[in-house]
């Protein structure tokens, strides 16, 4: 008997028909992957299963019994838990309170919660003090705190919506171990992700949601990442994004191949050169050289110093260097009010809903900064045309640019926020995880955006946990370990698969 059976599910938002006729089952102990392009309706489907959103039509059964939850609480009570994509946890709660919020222990004194919370945190291999306030945690661990919460509740089916999106490969492996344990306990898992190669290593079966129906229901063993990517976006085949010896980027001439020793001697086209970058106690002796039009990736474990290097470049952390030159001009590092201090602009996908008001329309989100009335009707028309063009170009799933930004799918919000941010990109910028949560086509669109800005000479530092993202976006990738760049990988002559393998291998060894 199926643990969960879903028949003929339908859901529309206004005129937008998201789920037209969705039928599938999840068996006990089965891990089922749910994939689809941005806006395909994956979160909507997960939310219906988890009682967060009501379906318009269709029938669900849980262990053979009719299942029609009226709320998330109702679903939890019936044994279905969800970790939502855009996790919001009350920042005033302690981690222990958050983890045990759905259990009979909720409301007990902190001293009584500490130990049971510790056990659950260990299960998701999250090394944080249960007394810490949630608001003090970095955003990427929210999904793991929520996963621990779901484990605390006696769930039979767990929906994990993009929990892996912000995790390092080693953390994804641990998350997969948690999913494996759930499966061995006979629980079912619905696993939503855009990180297809990693997902295929975990799941038993894959569902592709396309055009409002399950367009493919296949054992994972019968699929590979390339075929699955093509199925996801409904294209018969997708070209390899980067092939050996081919010029990597369109929109500009690829620089001549350089030896993989790094940094290379500085020349005319240097955008930024930093010698002996130090962040006291965290980073030591880092040399960076960015050429105009170059995309350089940085990755490493949480304690490697990679975030501190980025923080030094954006002026968020006090830092020192022996030499710092931006476009030929000497500059300094640090957080002082010093005019010459370097403060590279940075984009982060998890910055409080992208720094955008979710109630604003798409049109206003893209055209206005700061919010305020446009005075010139002609400029409004011109910019609205630009908005429509951007929305079409980025394949944003909406019927109108008057739709509120917050009603867009997570991936569509991210694409538009990034496009808006990149429109005012300066000489040298830092992008944190620019393709997080994006489908395979959207990842290419982001690469196109990168091609456009780099063609104009902008140099980009990409800070990421995702080896595929680094492989697809960057000309070279620095593996940071122990506060230093332990190794540079030149990506331009390699296939994405080869680059991913090297990054994972180097990051694991570091
Ligand atoms: N509350 C809402 N009001 C209006 N439209 C909505 C609402 N929730 C979702 N939608 C629309 O439903 C569609 C599906 O959204 P959903 O978040 O389920 O997509 P998704 O497949 O999870 O995408 P992603 O991969 O980007 O997270 C989107 O076009 C979105 O705009």
Automatic annotation (TrEMBL):
Report the residue ranges that make up the ABC transporter domain in this protein.
Answer: 4-236, 265-507
InterPro entries per the UniProt record, alphabetical: AAA+_ATPase, ABC_carbohydrate_import_ATPase, ABC_transporter-like_ATP-bd, P-loop_NTPase
Any one Gene Ontology MF annotation carried by this entry is: ATP binding
Q: Which Pfam families match?
A: ABC_tran (PF00005)
Region Disordered: which residues?
237-262
Domain of life of the organism encoding this protein:
Bacteria
* Alphabetical keyword list: ATP-binding, Nucleotide-binding, Repeat, Transport
**Name of the protein in its database record:** Ribose transport system ATP-binding protein
Which organism does this record belong to? Geodermatophilus africanus
């Amino acid at each position: 008997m199926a643990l969960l059976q879903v028949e003929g599910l339908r859901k529309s938002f206004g005129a937008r028909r998201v789920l037209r006729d969705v039928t599938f089952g999840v068996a006990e102990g089965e891990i089922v992957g749910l994939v689809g392009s941005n806006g395909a309706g994956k979160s909507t489907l997960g939310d219906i299963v988890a009682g967060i959103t009501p379906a318009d039509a269709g029938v669900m059964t849980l262990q053979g019994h009719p299942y029609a939850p009226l709320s998330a609480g109702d679903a939890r009570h019936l044994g279905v838990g969800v970790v939502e994509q855009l996790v919001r946890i009350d920042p005033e709660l302690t981690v222990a309170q958050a983890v045990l919020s759905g259990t009979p222990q909720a409301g007990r004194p902190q001293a009584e919660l500490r130990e049971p919370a510790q056990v659950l945190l260990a299960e998701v291999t999250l090394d944080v003090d249960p007394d810490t306030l949630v608001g003090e945690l970095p955003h990427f661990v929210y999904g793991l705190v929520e996963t621990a919460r779901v484990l605390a509740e006696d769930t039979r089916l767990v929906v994990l919506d993009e929990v892996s999106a912000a995790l390092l490969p080693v953390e994804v492996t641990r998350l997969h171990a948690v999913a494996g344990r759930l499966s061995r306990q006979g629980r079912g898992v619905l696993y939503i992700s855009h990180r297809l190669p990693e997902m295929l290593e975990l799941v038993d079966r894959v569902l592709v949601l396309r055009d409002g129906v399950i367009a493919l229901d296949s054992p994972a063993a019968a699929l590979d990442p390339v075929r699955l990517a093509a199925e996801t976006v409904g294209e018969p085949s997708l070209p390899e994004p980067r092939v050996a010896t081919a010029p990597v980027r369109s929109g500009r001439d690829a620089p001549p191949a350089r030896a993989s020793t790094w940094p290379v001697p500085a020349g005319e086209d240097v955008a930024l050169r930093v010698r002996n970058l130090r962040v006291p106690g965290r980073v030591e002796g880092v040399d960076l050289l960015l050429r105009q039009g170059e995309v350089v990736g940085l990755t490493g474990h949480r304690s490697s110093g990679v975030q501190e290097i980025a923080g030094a470049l954006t002026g968020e952390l006090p830092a020192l260097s022996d030499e710092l030159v931006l476009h030929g001009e000497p500059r300094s590092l640090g957080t002082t009010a010093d005019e010459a201090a370097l403060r590279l602009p940075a984009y982060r996908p998890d910055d409080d809903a992208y720094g955008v008001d979710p109630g604003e329309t798409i049109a206003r989100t893209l055209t206005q900064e700061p919010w305020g009335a446009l005075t010139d009707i002609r400029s409004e028309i011109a910019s609205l045309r630009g908005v429509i063009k951007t929305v079409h170009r980025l394949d944003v799933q909406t019927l109108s640019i008057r739709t509120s930004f917050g009603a867009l799918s997570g991936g569509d919000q991210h694409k538009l926020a990034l496009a808006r941010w990149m429109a005012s990109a300066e000489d040298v910028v830092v992008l944190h995880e620019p393709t997080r949560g994006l489908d395979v086509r959207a990842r290419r669109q982001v690469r196109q955006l990168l091609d456009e800005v780099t063609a104009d000479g902008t140099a980009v530092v990409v800070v990421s946990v995702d080896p595929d993202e680094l492989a697809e976006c960057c000309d070279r990738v620095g593996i940071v370990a122990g506060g230093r760049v332990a190794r540079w990988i030149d990506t331009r002559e390699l296939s994405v698969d080869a680059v991913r393998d090297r990054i994972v291998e180097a990051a694991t060894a570091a």
